[in-house]
């Protein structure tokens, strides 16, 4: 990948925008209850999803503005055909120096050698429990063995692995310590995420397990957490534990304590630009790309959207129209 270019893109609060989370599909092969209803969600017709060529064009424009990191998300990215060749083309875009991926791991293991050859720097693996029965209950699919195959294949390849575990009251609290114990012998970061309301319905999380309680629970079982410095824009508070090879991360995704340094933007699979996870979408990029807009016109529209970015997730939520106060499925917005 090419060397990074200095960021020249800032929002109206002076925060550099260097990181794009790009959803390549809204489809998923799991049915995690905190993400979508058991029957699934109404997927976008395939012709309404951005093509790979449209995504490449947009990434090229954004890297020209200073975006230097792209993380592919979904849905589940590997549900979409020809993902790895698409990633190879992204990796060749000048200015992009960090290409990474978030996956549930069910279909990923066979592609790990190709990801390593492409220079993929990190893979975030969604894994809420190491117990097979609870995994099947949470995801409504009995796929834990294949996810663990992916986990160990990634470790063997040398790709940095971060486990993302959503903390759910009454569902996987007994799994927090076993997941954290993976850091004792393995060079992995296990990140515990506050539950959010993005489940495809109107339910709002009451959050009995916030970031403070998560830390207290883990420290009571594992010992003192030693804070580790993190770069500006990081969502996780990171900690080391004496005698552990890996690290622990805690993400205050519902409490939104990290908004002040947020450097990321999101593009949904159908081309909606989100400058905050909690906003309703601020620009229809697909309409620009398919309406004959020039690169200069698309670039100016993006810059204009960034001039009105919410200060934090609470302001973004307040701006949502009343008829959109129920939250989308995380599968549709790319996490």
UniProtKB/TrEMBL annotation:
Pathway: Cofactor biosynthesis; molybdopterin biosynthesis
Domain Radical SAM core stretches: 12-224
Cofactor note: Binds 2 [4Fe-4S] clusters. Binds 1 [4Fe-4S] cluster coordinated with 3 cysteines and an exchangeable S-adenosyl-L-methionine and 1 [4Fe-4S] cluster coordinated with 3 cysteines and the GTP-derived substrate.
Any one GO biological process: Mo-molybdopterin cofactor biosynthetic process
PROSITE patterns: MOAA_NIFB_PQQE, RADICAL_SAM
Swiss-Prot/TrEMBL cofactor(s): [4Fe-4S] cluster
Binding site for [4Fe-4S] cluster 2: 259, 262, 276
Presence of keyword 4Fe-4S: yes
Reactions the enzyme catalyzes: GTP + AH2 + S-adenosyl-L-methionine = (8S)-3',8-cyclo-7,8-dihydroguanosine 5'-triphosphate + 5'-deoxyadenosine + L-methionine + A + H(+)
GO molecular function: 4 iron, 4 sulfur cluster binding; cyclic pyranopterin monophosphate synthase activity; GTP 3',8'-cyclase activity; GTP binding; metal ion binding; S-adenosyl-L-methionine binding
UniProt-annotated binding residues for [4Fe-4S] cluster 1: 28, 32, 35
Keyword set, alphabetical order: 4Fe-4S, GTP-binding, Iron, Iron-sulfur, Lyase, Metal-binding, Molybdenum cofactor biosynthesis, Nucleotide-binding, S-adenosyl-L-methionine
UniProt: GTP binding residues: 21, 71, 102, 162, 264-266
Primary enzyme class: lyase
InterPro entries noted in UniProt: Aldolase_TIM (IPR013785), Elp3/MiaA/NifB-like_rSAM (IPR006638), MoaA (IPR013483), MoaA-like (IPR040064), MoaA_NifB_PqqE_Fe-S-bd_CS (IPR000385), MoaA_twitch (IPR010505), MoCo_biosynth_MoaA/MoaC (IPR050105), rSAM (IPR007197)
Known role: Catalyzes the cyclization of GTP to (8S)-3',8-cyclo-7,8-dihydroguanosine 5'-triphosphate.
Record-stated family: Belongs to the radical SAM superfamily. MoaA family.
Oligomer status and interactors: Monomer and homodimer.
Name recorded for this polypeptide: GTP 3',8-cyclase
Organism of derivation: Hymenobacter psychrotolerans DSM 18569
Gene of this entry: moaA
């Amino acid at each position: 990948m090419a060397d990074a270019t200095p960021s020249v893109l800032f929002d109206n609060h002076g925060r550099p925008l260097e990181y794009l989370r790009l959803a390549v599909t809204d489809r998923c092969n799991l049915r995690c209850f905190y993400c979508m209803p058991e029957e699934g969600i109404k997927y976008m017709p395939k012709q309404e999803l951005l093509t790979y060529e449209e995504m490449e064009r947009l990434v090229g424009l954004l890297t020209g503005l200073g975006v230097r990191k792209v993380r592919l998300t979904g849905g589940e990215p590997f549900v979409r055909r020809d993902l790895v060749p698409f990633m190879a083309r992204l990796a060749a875009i000048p200015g992009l120096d960090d290409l990474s991926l978030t996956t549930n791991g069910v279909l990923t293991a066979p592609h790990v050698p190709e990801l390593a050859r492409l220079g993929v720097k990190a893979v975030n693996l969604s894994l809420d429990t190491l117990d097979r029965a609870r995994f099947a209950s949470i995801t409504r699919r009995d796929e834990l063995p294949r996810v663990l195959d992916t986990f160990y294949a990634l470790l063997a390849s040398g790709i940095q692995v971060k486990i993302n575990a959503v903390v759910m009251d009454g569902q996987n609290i007994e799994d927090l310590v076993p997941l954290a114990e993976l850091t004792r012998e393995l060079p992995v970061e296990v990140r515990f995420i506050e539950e959010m309301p993005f489940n495809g319905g109107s339910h709002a999380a009451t959050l009995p397990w916030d970031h403070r309680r998560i830390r207290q629970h883990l420290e009571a079982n594992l010992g003192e957490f030693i804070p580790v410095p993190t770069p500006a824009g990081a969502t996780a508070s990171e900690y080391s534990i004496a005698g552990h090879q890996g690290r622990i991360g805690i993400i205050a995704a519902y409490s939104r304590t990290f908004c002040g340094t947020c450097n990321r933007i999101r593009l949904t699979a159908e081309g909606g630009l989100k400058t905050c996870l909690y906003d309703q979408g601020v620009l229809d990029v697909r309409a620009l790309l398919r309406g004959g807009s020039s690169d200069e016109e698309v670039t100016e529209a993006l810059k204009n959207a960034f001039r009105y970015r919410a200060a934090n997730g609470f302001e973004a939520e307040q701006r949502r129209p009343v008829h959109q106060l129920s939250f989308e499925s995380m599968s549709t917005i790319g996490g």
